[in-house]
Design brief:
- The protein is an alpha+beta fold and 96 residues long.
- It has a single domain (4-89), classed as Fructose-1,6-Bisphosphatase, subunit A, domain 1 (Fructose-1,6-Bisphosphatase, Chain A, domain 1), CATH 3.30.540.
- 42% of the residues lie in helices and 14% in strands.
- The chain has 3 helices and 3 strands.
- It has a 3-stranded mixed beta sheet, with no helix packed on it.
- Helix 1 (4-23) packs antiparallel against helix 2 (31-46).
- The N and C termini lie far apart (35 Å).
Length: 96
């Protein structure tokens, strides 16, 4: 199972990938597309992180995003005994 520092690196990558995806929309006046790209990128990383997590504070409800809703499961170790269990608050792109 992953330790805390390994998980931190995965979460950092989720933030980086979200920022890079959103940056591709910078200056185009398409804030919803930028937000959607950030959400999709972050979710893609979370799908591969070795933990059993869930969204505690989500993106979906506030911004009508297609994913990262409150209660949504995250991680590739869902239901695995001994997996790190973590609740996450997410907002892949601020101010959208």
């Amino acid at each position: 199972m992953a330790n805390t520092s390994e998980l931190a690196n995965h979460f950092l990558r989720a933030c980086e990938d979200a920022a890079i995806a959103a940056a591709k929309w910078r200056g185009r006046g398409e804030r919803k597309k930028a937000d959607g790209a950030a959400v999709e990128a972050m979710r893609a990383v979370f799908d591969s992180v070795p933990f059993d997590g869930r969204v505690a504070i989500g993106e979906g409800e506030r911004d009508d995003a297609p994913m990262l809703y409150i209660g949504e499961p995250l991680g590739c170790l869902q239901g695995i005994e001994g997996a790190p269990q973590i609740d996450i608050a997410v907002d892949p792109l601020e101010c959208t």
